[in-house]
Amino acid sequence: MPGVHVLLPPSEGKRAGGSGPPLRLDALPFPDLTAVRERIVDALALVSADPEAARPVLRVPPTVLDEVAANTAVRTAPTLAALDRYDGVLYRALSAPALSPAERARADGRLLIASALFGVVAADSEVPAYRLSAGATLPGVGGIAAAWRPWVAGALAALPGLLVDLRSAAYAGFGSPPGTVTVRMVRQGPGGLVTAIGHDNKAAKGALARLLATTRARVEDAADLVRLLRRAGWTANHTGDVIEVHA
Hints:
Residues 1-22 are annotated as: Disordered. Pfam families: H2O2_YaaD. This is Peroxide stress protein YaaA. It comes from Nakamurella endophytica. By secondary structure, this protein is an alpha/beta fold. It has one domain (4-246). 36% of the residues lie in helices and 19% in strands. The chain has helices at residues 34-47, 51-58, 65-69, 82-85, 89-94, 101-110, 144-157, 169-172, 201-214, 222-231, and strands at residues 4-8, 80-81, 111-115, 119-122, 126-127, 137-138, 142-143, 162-165, 181-188, 194-196, 235-239, 242-246. The strands form three sheets. Strands 1, 3, 4, 8, 9, 10, 11 and 12 form an eight-stranded mixed sheet that branches. It has a two-stranded antiparallel ribbon with strand order 2-5. A hairpin with a 3-residue loop joins strand 6 and strand 7.
């Protein structure tokens, strides 16, 4: 049945550990991405065998060498549902642990998360901890965004209903199918000038994602989305395939 899917960025911060079984790439959604996932997982493990040498490749600070080392165990490490694994500002604002069982079921069915390692996963996809960003370039793979670009839009095109894109620019570079609605968080400044918000962008998107993940309202097109946002107290304006939301 058509409805809404919400595409989120990942976060650099991830919760460690987990109680789920080891990663099964063939169990993740969007099976057309499996071959690319295999290549990137293997390349990441190989480069991460020497965490210090991997730092400039992965573009990470020296404070996260333990996270880089964990890349070598991606296939065998315990897993968590993706919505519980990611732990950045957006996810804290979304506050998955506070969802009721019914809200969590709706969130699991609607939320998708972009991933440098996996392309796109669902909220309930079981994934391990890892360290890889969209800006990295892996030996044998090349740039991460370029590796995903030929595949992600086609995979997402099979989804029914409305696709709402809340990804950051780096992950939006993976591609999206025609008809995707991009949400831009903005603020009106002096003289009425509307600009993208900076510091509060992730928290605002987390609050918006929580609304879309849990609402019982019908959201099947951009007009439905604008009505939902306005009823929730947001100022939202729709132009083409972009919705500007004032935060």
